[in-house]
Amino acid sequence: MRPRHVLLATLIAAIWGFNFVPIKVALEDFPPLLLAALRFTAAALPAVFFVRRPPVAVRWLWLVGIPLGVGQFALLFIGMRLGMPAGLSSVVLQVQAIFTALFAGVLLRERLGARQIAGMAVAFSGVALLGVAQAEGGSPVGAFLLCIGGAASWGLANVAMRRMNQTAAEPVDAFGFMVWMSLVPPVPLFALSLIFEGPGAVPDAARHLSVAGVGSLAFIAYVSTLVGFGVWGWLMRRYEAGTVAMYSLLVPPFGLLSAALVLGEHVDGTRLAGAALIICGVAAGSVRLRSRASRAPIQVAPPEPVQTR
């Protein structure tokens, strides 16, 4: 990659890592289900009127939109609202790569190699260590488990997207798909918000709106989602997917650093060790090293669109 494109890929990883900070800020103004609904509404409108619909069947928008929007983001936002730190959330969510491999093995019958299995073992040992640290530190274990559930939901969405790409007549543009897929989650999310957060959630949020809350929502929907995936998709079209995807491994470090600097979150030694195990496990399960004789570059299995980032 050209140096300026390396900087661009690193910038997107930084944006996606930093995105957990505005999520935490926005959750002070909006209840989690309502925030998730507004996030996808803002990402879809008005962009859907200017972006060509991807050449895929409508069912794929639903098969990805429900686990990604209603599953991943609802569970993540609820978990963070209940006390899951922003920095650790950015790390735990990366377990989606492990869930993706597991679900792909079961649903798509993709074989798991020894390296992938070893990476899973390392990553899940990090998850267990974080879980113990959460319990011993008095933090809500339920919030931690909700984030794990969000990662699992993301894994299901990834498998659906992989199957969609395998059966599509032509390559599917990630940015266009993200815009049109964003039309799916708002209705079920608004319905869930009405049921669990009550009919007063919208007027109550409107009365307590702050500049920080509105700005955070705008960052989540437009900068992280539309700008992030627009640039990421542009890089994917210019370079090999594995070369670009390697930079997604920078998201958790940026997430931890930004949460520490902006929110003042402290990560003790146990949690830091758990986070390191997760990052190493995901990297070990994703990075593909070829023989030295082949002189082929390092490749990383490309992440599926989402990121919550």
In short:
The protein has helices at residues 3-18, 20-26, 32-44, 58-81, 86-92, 96-107, 114-136, 141-167, 174-181, 186-196, 201-207, 211-238, 241-245, 251-262, 269-286, and strands at 287-288, 299-300.
Structural account:
- Residues 6-130, 144-283 form the EamA domain.
- InterPro entries: AA-Vitamin_Transporters, EamA_dom, EmrE-like.
- Pfam families: EamA.
- By secondary structure, the chain is mainly α.
- It is built from 15 helices and two strands.
- A two-stranded antiparallel sheet has the order 1-2.
- α1 (3-18) runs antiparallel to α12 and α3 packs antiparallel against α4 (58-81).
- The chain starts with a helix and ends in a 9-residue tail after the last strand.
- The model is unreliable at 289-308 (pLDDT under 50).
Q: How far apart are the termini?
A: 23 Å
Order of helices and strands: HHHHHHHHHHHHHHHEE
Radius of gyration: 19 Å
Most strands sheet = 2 strands, antiparallel
Number of strand segments: 2
Total helical elements: 15
What share of residues is helical?
over 70%
Q: What structural category do the secondary elements indicate?
A: mainly alpha
Shape: globular
Q: What is the beta-strand fraction? A: under 5%
- Low-confidence stretches are 289-308
| Lateral strand order in the biggest sheet | 1-2
Question: Could you tell me the mean pLDDT?
Answer: 87
Membrane topology: Multi-pass membrane protein
Family: Belongs to the EamA transporter family.
InterPro entries: AA-Vitamin_Transporters, EamA_dom, EmrE-like
Transmembrane segments: 7-27, 33-51, 60-80, 86-108, 117-135, 141-160, 172-196, 208-232, 244-263, 269-289
